[in-house]
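Blinded run. Sample ID left blank on purpose so nobody reads anything into the name before looking at the predicted structure. Input follows.
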Amino acid sequence: MSVLSKPHFHSEEAAFKHLEKLLWPNGPVCPHCGSMGRHYNLWKTRTGRWKCQDCRKQFRVTVGTVFECAKIPLNKMLQAVYLLCSSKKGISSHQLHRTLGVTYKSAWFLSHRIREAFRDGELAPLGGGNGEFGNVEADETFIGREPGVPKRRGHAHKQKVLSLVDREAKQVRSVVIDDLSAATVMPILEENIAKEATIMTDEAGQYGSGGDKFIDHQTVNHSEEEYVRGIVHTNTVEGYFSVFKRGMKGVYQHCAKHHLHRYLAEFDFRYNNRIRLGVDDVMRAENALRGIKGKRLTYKQPTSRRQTRV
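Blinded prediction complete.
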């Protein structure tokens, strides 16, 4: 039986019950006052609706999540989560618009809501946050076009992405950066990599002081056609870039800089929840749904060019 034939993908009532099971494993929790177990069930008048006996306010499981105030039926939004999680290189908003039977504008905004759910909050340092030694690869890639920068030779006119891959934990973390200077790159490495880790990079100058910040810094010289020296290489992070670029160019085709951080969150999430780590498509979708709590995204946020990329 196909996964998409599950009841919570075709019935809004089943979709609410499925989401409540994931987000409220011990029963309903009022998002307004935090009380548990003292609620009226108002499902007969409106699907998924509860009323708190303490604060007397009504709520649904979607309150305080990225799905709050969404006009699309919840079962269709769960379908979109599954489709975005199970597609290795992503799925376009036009494809979601055709598959779900919603407008393109609704599908586009829903895609960004789901990408917001993919974004992690506070994260442990890569490469040995528990005192264990680890190897972390760091590299940058270029995609798209910097707004307002004329096209020229080299990469100055391209958008810049820095990614860090923890080999042992098999996790990736990516950020959008404005330039490739050491003053920009090194603070990001220090914030996200444990001091006891060994970092592995190419010969780029911005990583030159890495040996002073971490237990060891190993490099490969790509300009001399050196790509592997024993365990020293950056092939893992470059493998991640290959999937990221194929998705961005082949599926999404274009991405404005003020959206790029959410697309990175999408590709990071799928990489960190992949089948090689024992996570199948269903588990990946459930992990994504657990990430919707405590996050809100209004339509003005993804359409505004002035938002900060955090």
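Unblinding after everyone has recorded impressions. The chain has two domains: 3-118, 135-255.
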